[in-house]
Amino acid sequence: MPREPLSPVTVLCLAILFNDERTGYEIRKQSLEGRHRWFVDASYGSIYPALARLAQSGLVTVREEVQSGRPSRKVYAITTEGRAALIEELSEPPGPDIFRSRFLLVSSFAPHLPRRTVEAAIEERKAGLAEEIAAIEAAVAESECAGERDCDALSWAAAYGRNCLGAHLDFLKTHGDSLIAMAEGGTDASLPKAAE
Amino acid sequence: MPREPLSPVTVLCLAILFNDERTGYEIRKQSLEGRHRWFVDASYGSIYPALARLAQSGLVTVREEVQSGRPSRKVYAITTEGRAALIEELSEPPGPDIFRSRFLLVSSFAPHLPRRTVEAAIEERKAGLAEEIAAIEAAVAESECAGERDCDALSWAAAYGRNCLGAHLDFLKTHGDSLIAMAEGGTDASLPKAAE
DNA sequence: TGATCCATGTAAGCCGTTACATGATTGG
DNA sequence: CCAATCATGTAACGGCTTACATGGATCA
Q: What residues 79-138 of chain B have any CB closer than 8 A to a CB of chain A?
């Protein structure tokens, strides 16, 4: 029988567990950094239940490690069926990537917004992009792979991310000023020192 | 008193109504095409209630047009307060753009996936990107703006989109093959004609 | 001493989608 | 004649976030 489709968070858990065993806490952390940021960023409220469901359906196993002092941790490990389920799931057509940009909405309203607002939005965006690119570099530097092929694939995905984020950043660096010029307040370069 | 933050769909409605009056049906359509695709794509189930709430809070007005044959349409128009609320909302820091890519997850698992799957994913992605870029061109060509500034801002946002999507597409065109080479099945260019 | 890290989990709620219900008109 | 377009809306459901509950250890 064909497996029913897995929820995004479930897929994330299996993907992270594919190479190493992890606790829910660790999965959450890893979902924010490195290569998994591009998928979903999940919170505890979705990860823990997902892990419990996975364990019940036999796609992962649990081992409870009692620790002195610290709360005991539940270490999850993927099973053969889990690996199969993930591969099966990833073999489905991935569907379109999703890009949601409030910044782009703001930018198209630049003529109706104060200059300061537009400037701030662009600066924030530039800073965010630079940070994300740095995070990719860092993730690549410290990533450990199971095999050479895996490592290559990881590098590929990282290069993809770097490339595309770089394009965003370049555009802002090159054309940011022209958007600011469209903002309320006009083309003039000097700020009229408006009171707050 | 400070206005409570508006939900994304609400912002979308106000943004679309900013220049023209529209029905819920038309708003839905416009949310899919042109410049609003980058924000949210909302379904009737969220648009109609949002519009009703907006009307109740006085940010838009409704006018019911009874039509012969067709069901009567409710035409919404933004009010001065609505405009102010939108501007106020857009003046808040926009927060980070969101990029969610299942494709990137698939790509990082390329060594564990059949060659065909990886090829198909890349082709699908390329086709999707080309389509989106074409949609931007089309939207720019037929867009009507209230003023010159508005038109410039719209063009700016379109150029941003074109630029970034173009970067994705270029990367796939240039490096797609190297990912395929990492897939299960090896580096060899000829397919061994495996049975389905 | 107070924040942060480790570590798990639940409950309520939000925001949105999908599917349903209805129905005339126009175009292929 | 069938599909798509126009046109509005509701109800159920889903999936994820936020906030809550708990608590020792470590670091500044």
A: 86-87, 90-91, 93-114, 117, 120-121, 124-125, 128
